[in-house]
Specification:
Oligomer: single chain
Largest sheet: 6 strands, mixed
Number of strands: 16
Distance between the termini: 70 Å
Structural class: alpha/beta
Strand order of the largest sheet: 1-6-3-4-2-5
Helix content: 40-55%
Strand content: 5-15%
Radius of gyration: 28 Å
Length: about 850
């Protein structure tokens, strides 16, 4: 073998072709792996901006001569590394298309330089040719063609990168996308291993992919540390290492090592290179051969000291305000702020920061997170923001001032008081962040009233209640009509903070008239509910007045940033751009859906799309599915027929050029695509420690593993309990065999099976499209009855428009006992009607 370090540019240079052999599995990278790679890409792009030269090691690529390899036809088999190579080539396609929207020259530039061999025929045209399962999707990607019906994960990977590029493209920075491209081509280092012609490539492939459990980065660090402690190893292990390992566990130790690296290196620290970073730090300690063991012991002792701070962060049990705010941060899942928090605790212990200064700094951090959440600002760059801030906390200046100043620049989008008030009144708060974060905001607001009843968010019965319901009855609509256009008012205000509260009566309140709902709210121990109950009616004026009242309280709770001069370019349209970038192939949406999502109006949405170059803007149609009469391409020289483009992209148009409503993506579905409602950080989800999958089948095990990783042990446990109940009454369960695992309780009708609901890793789907093909559920009245029954569950709202489709709700809701009970009773009802 021959090995050398190279980059993607080096591997795909020239007219060679890289073939993925048939014995390789299909392309399998999903959002978790893509997100990890994207964080590394962003970090390297930042370093280019700062003039730093270091790069990131991505892994190895093993190549063997292909069957037609010759000097005039360089053909290589990808023995190992096809996932990395395919991902990077798909990222290049996304970069090409993103930049070509501004300047078409980028299409030809990237194609001919990196993606294709222009003058070669047929499939030899492609510099990378994946295995058969992914070949057509990849070729469509390279050719810039719409993806057809495909199960290949190449399509969602391309969509992932298009979405991320939209998010990071800052109008104030003309070079940000160019830096991303430079990273993909030049700063992700790969070790290229070339196998000699007489080697057995498949044997090498088997050897590479059948190794045992790899050592973790903590294992490597521990081994490296104790390699330098030949005489003091046992003492250091017993005194420092073992106690912190027992306190933190494997996951906590992993966090500690990364955080310690950030505290020493700031934003130069890379999670994937934690071992290498500690190795370099230890190398500097051990260069002088005198007293090496003493210095290494001091190094481990310092880690043990910092482990105390991390333990306090992860499990704050004290009664101080510092600990109370740490508990808030943990409930928020504010892991990205941990480096700053750890540094604050370090300075407090050393006497360089007072308790009051630390608390004030925590207030600014909380305000930064809350104001960005309510303003709909994406969270993708939070990790970098706090990593950069950490080294600025030196103890020389008051820590609260350093934190406030460091987070205040306009480019970080920490809203002013004026903007904060506007966001509270207009933004669809119900779709921002995680449900737990929304509850925390409402809890802080309730606490500001000084009520006597504590708000316990751990109580599963406490839910977020829409005072004006999500699905208004005729009585509610009549009340809204007194203020103007009922539909428009409902869309504008239903999900705003002024219309939301906390309640333990969500299922009882539901769509009941306000006159009855206020009786429940008046009996609540929460002051905010008592204040709502004092109103005689609940319409536009009341919601806006309450939003203004809450905004005044919020401004008092969460302090503003410093005024550091004129703000940068507006980011008001960021959520809209991200939503359009995330539109799946073959779908469309409306101006009204986008307006509902971002808390705006259809008219300004239409104006913005008509005056800006926005990805997928042509797939925004009128409410009846037609292209707006004023539509035009952003490029005035583009003479394509938009209807033909829509058809080519898989959107079905009737004889009147109306798009199929079944392909419409609603505001709610857009929010789900962007993981806005109840979204979870997948990297933080974990299976319950006491789950035992040894006795279940492969597909059932895979389903619960994916569900646990995506939504956590509570959701997995609730679904497991439901399936156990179903089997206990003689029911059967079907487990999906595709990449996206699923489980479906089903009944038998003759020789066929009929799933009632289908559980996926993130959603619970009601397959009305399948039900309608079976008697008696070919009757839409029965399907609607099932929809109404399921909708009795708190937080579930299946639209009537999807009685022939596959509507779904967040599977995390299954952890709510009230939702679980409704789903169980719905299954019972379904069986009764099917057998009746």
């Amino acid at each position: 073998m021959k090995a050398n370090e190279t980059t993607l540019r080096g591997i795909i240079a020239g007219e060679q072709q890289l073939l993925v052999p048939l014995y390789q599995r299909p392309y399998s990278w999903e959002r978790g792996q893509l997100s990890t790679l994207w964080r590394d890409i962003e970090l390297q792009a930042d370093r280019i901006e700062q003039g730093k030269e270091n790069s990131h090691f991505l892994g190895s690529v093993v190549l063997a001569p292909g069957p037609n390899n010759s000097p005039g036809n360089p053909e290589w088999l990808v023995v190992d590394g096809q996932q990395r190579l395919t991902t990077l080539m798909v990222a290049l396609c996304a970069l090409r298309d993103h930049q070509a929207a501004e300047d078409p020259v980028h299409r030809e530039r990237i194609n001919e330089t990196h993606l294709i061999n222009r003058f070669r025929p047929g499939d030899t045209r492609y510099r990378l040719l994946p295995t058969q399962a992914d070949r057509q999707a990849y070729k469509d990607c390279v050719e810039g063609q719409p993806f057809g019906a495909t199960r290949s994960l190449v399509a969602p990977a391309y969509q992932f990168f298009r979405t991320k590029l939209v998010e990071v493209d800052d109008p104030a920075d003309p070079h940000d996308i160019a830096r991303i491209e430079s990273v993909v081509l030049n700063r992700l280092n790969l070790v290229q291993i070339v196998v000699e012609g007489d080697d057995n490539a498949f044997r090498i492939f088997e050897s590479i992919n059948n190794t045992g459990m790899q050592l973790s980065q903590v294992d490597l660090i521990r081994n490296y540390v104790f390699m330098h402690l030949p005489t003091k190893g046992q003492f250091v292990y017993d005194t420092y290492w073992l106690p912190m390992q027992e306190k933190l566990g494997s996951k906590g130790m992993d966090q500690l090592m990364y955080l310690a690296l950030i505290l020493d290196r700031g934003d130069e620290a890379q999670y994937n290179d934690t071992y290498r970073g500690h190795q370099e730090l230890l190398h500097s300690v051990t260069m002088d051969k005198k007293h090496v063991e003493d210095r290494v012991e001091a190094y481990v002792k310092d880690l043990a000291r910092r482990s105390r701070y991390l333990q306090r962060i992860l499990a704050p049990t004290g009664e101080s305000e510092i600990d109370a705010r740490l508990r808030f941060l943990n409930e928020w899942k504010g892991n990205t702020a941990y480096p700053v928090i750890m540094r604050l605790l370090e300075l407090h212990e050393s006497g360089e920061a007072t308790e009051d200064e630390v608390i004030e700094a925590q207030r600014y951090i909380e305000s930064f997170l809350v104001r960005r959440l309510i303003g709909g600002v994406t969270t993708g760059n939070l990790n970098k923001i706090f990593m950069r801030l950490t080294p600025e906390l030196t103890g020389e200046d008051p820590v609260a001032d350093v934190v406030r100043t460091g987070l205040s620049p306009a480019r970080l989008y920490w809203s002013s008081d004026e903007q904060f008030r506007t966001d509270i009144g207009s933004r669809a708060f119900y779709w921002q962040g995680r449900t737990a974060q929304q509850k925390l905001v409402l809890r802080r607001l309730e606490e500001s009233y000084g009520g006597k009843e504590p708000v316990e968010l751990s109580d599963k019965k406490i839910t977020i209640e829409h005072v004006l319901p999500q699905s208004p009855t005729a009585e509610w609509r009549d009340q809204l009509a007194a203020d103007g256009d009922a539909d428009r008012i409902h869309k504008e205000l239903v999900h705003t903070l002024g219309n939301l509260t906390l309640s333990g009566y969500n299922s009882e309140l539901s769509n009941m008239p306000f006159a009855k709902k206020r009786e429940f709210l008046g009996q609540s121990g929460l002051v905010m509910n008592q204040r709502i109950a004092k109103h005689e009616r609940w319409g536009k004026a009341e919601i806006q007045s309450r939003a203004d009242e809450l905004a005044s309280r919020a401004i008092g709770i969460w302090p503003s940033p410093l005024d550091l001069g004129p703000v940068g370019p507006s980011r008001d349209w960021t959520l809209l751009h991200s939503a359009l970038a995330a539109l799946p192939a073959g779908t469309w949406t409306t101006y009204g859906d986008l307006a509902e999502l971002i808390g705006s109006h259809a008219v300004p949405v239409g104006v913005h799309l008509s005056t800006s170059s926005v990805l997928n803007a042509h797939r925004v149609l009128t409410a009846n599915g037609q292209v707006s009469t004023g539509f035009h391409w952003a490029d005035e020289n583009d003479d394509r027929d938009v209807h033909e483009v829509l058809r080519a992209e898989g959107i079905r148009l009737d004889e009147a050029d109306r798009a199929d409503p079944a392909q419409r993506i609603s505001a709610r579905e857009l929010a789900e695509l962007l993981e806005l409602p109840g979204a979870v950080d997948l990297s933080e989800a974990a299976l319950a420690a006491d789950e035992d999958f040894s006795q279940v089948g492969e597909h059932e095990q895979r389903f619960f593993q994916q569900l646990g990783e995506a939504k956590g042990p509570q959701a997995a446990g609730a679904v497991s309990r439901l399936l156990e109940w179903w089997r206990g009454r003689g029911g059967e369960v079907q487990f999906g065999r595709s990449a996206g695992a699923s489980a479906a309780p089903f009944i038998r009708i003759g020789s066929e099976i009929l799933p009632i609901v289908r559980f996926y890793s993130k959603t619970v789907e009601v397959p009305f499209a399948t039900h309608k093909k079976r008697v008696p559920f070919n009757d839409p009245v029965l399907r609607d009855e099932l929809r109404r029954r399921v909708n009795e569950a708190p937080g579930v709202d299946l639209p009537a428009a999807k009685l022939e489709l596959y509507p779904s709700f967040d599977i995390a809701l299954m952890a709510n006992d009230a939702v679980w009970d409704v789903v169980v009773s719905s299954l019972d009802w379904f069986v009764t009607r099917a057998k009746g």
